[in-house]
């Protein structure tokens, strides 16, 4: 069990995993005619002690993904964030926006107008323009947050109207699939949606990030156009809740 290893051993494991993941990402990128450096590796930090998050940063990871406001605030002072950006990726209640608005660079989990207005209001107060991604419930699962795929274009157009928000792309967590072809189908739909919106050239909208792919599916996600993969388990090992 991971927790019985010494700190040094665990840090060495993280270094090895990041190196291997990098090679896999680069290999997949090249196989599909893309540049390895166009794909960003995010380290998802939930439940992970700051010492190990710093190990990943030490390996050159430059984007962290945070799920919970409280956990982030309690760990943030121990992170070595120089040169890193932090993205909120977990479901965010609008009354919590004020606690993180000056402490994150992007909010990936935006799926309601209420959240948009709160982010806009708090970003205005903080004197910044917040990057956001629209979260898409690509499998239309009742248990998941995110926008209905058919509602995304309208939502992006609405979001574009807020002066302290910069729409920067889309995020999704596809359903768990038995067949890889079903999974790839969901990634494909996301990619098409992403291209669709890019083509519309909406003012104040830059489709820079297509955030999809986690520990179990980041290679197929890259094959289908992802340019940011969000990895927790693959970097840090299994989580202890
Ligand atoms: C936990 C989490 C991840 C990472 O999951 P792993 O399977 O551990 O890589 C990615 N995205 C979101 C939104 C998460 O909550």
UniProtKB/TrEMBL annotation:
Keywords from UniProt, A to Z, are: Pyridoxal phosphate
Function comment: Pyridoxal 5'-phosphate (PLP)-binding protein, which is involved in PLP homeostasis.
Which sequence positions carry the modification called N6-(pyridoxal phosphate)lysine? 46
**Phylogenetic placement of the source organism:** Bacteria, Bacillati, Bacillota, Clostridia, Eubacteriales
Instruction: State its cofactor.
Output: pyridoxal 5'-phosphate
Please give the HAMAP family that the UniProt record associates with this protein.
Answer: PLP_homeostasis
Give the record's family classification: Belongs to the pyridoxal phosphate-binding protein YggS/PROSC family.
The family database entries (PANTHER family) matched by this protein are listed as: PROLINE SYNTHETASE CO-TRANSCRIBED BACTERIAL HOMOLOG PROTEIN, PYRIDOXAL PHOSPHATE HOMEOSTASIS PROTEIN
| InterPro entries referenced in this protein's UniProt entry, alphabetically | Ala_racemase_N (IPR001608), PLP-binding_barrel (IPR029066), PyrdxlP_homeostasis (IPR011078)
Q: Which residues form the Alanine racemase N-terminal domain?
A: 40-238
Record bears the keyword Transferase: no
The record's annotation in NCBIfam families points to: YggS family pyridoxal phosphate-dependent enzyme (TIGR00044)
Q: What is this protein called?
A: Pyridoxal phosphate homeostasis protein
Q: Which GO terms describe its molecular function?
A: pyridoxal phosphate binding
Is this entry keyworded Ribonucleoprotein?
A: no
């Amino acid at each position: 069990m991971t927790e019985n290893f010494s700190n040094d051993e665990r840090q060495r494991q993280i270094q090895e995993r990041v190196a291997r993941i990098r090679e896999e990402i680069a290999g997949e990128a090249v196989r599909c005619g893309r540049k390895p450096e166009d794909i960003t590796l995010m380290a998802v930090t939930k439940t992970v002690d700051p010492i190990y998050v710093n190990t990943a940063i030490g390996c050159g990871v430059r984007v962290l993904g945070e799920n919970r406001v409280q956990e982030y605030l309690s760990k943030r002072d121990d992170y070595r964030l120089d040169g890193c950006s932090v993205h909120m990726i977990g479901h965010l209640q609008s009354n919590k926006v004020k606690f993180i608005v000056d402490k994150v660079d992007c909010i990936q989990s935006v799926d309601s107008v209420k959240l948009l207005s709160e982010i806009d209001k708090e970003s205005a107060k903080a004197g910044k323009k917040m990057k956001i991604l629209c979260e898409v419930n690509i499998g239309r699962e009742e248990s998941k947050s995110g926008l209905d795929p058919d509602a995304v274009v309208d939502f992006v157009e609405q979001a574009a109207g807020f002066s302290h928000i910069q729409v920067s792309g889309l995020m999704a967590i596809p359903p768990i699939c038995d067949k890889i072809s079903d999974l790839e189908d969901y990634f494909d739909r996301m990619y098409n949606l992403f291209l669709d919106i890019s083509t519309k050239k909406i003012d104040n909208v830059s489709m820079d990030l297509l955030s999809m792919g986690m520990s179990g599916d980041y290679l197929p996600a890259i094959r289908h156009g992802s340019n940011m993969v969000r990895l927790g388990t693959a970097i840090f090992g299994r989580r202890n809740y």
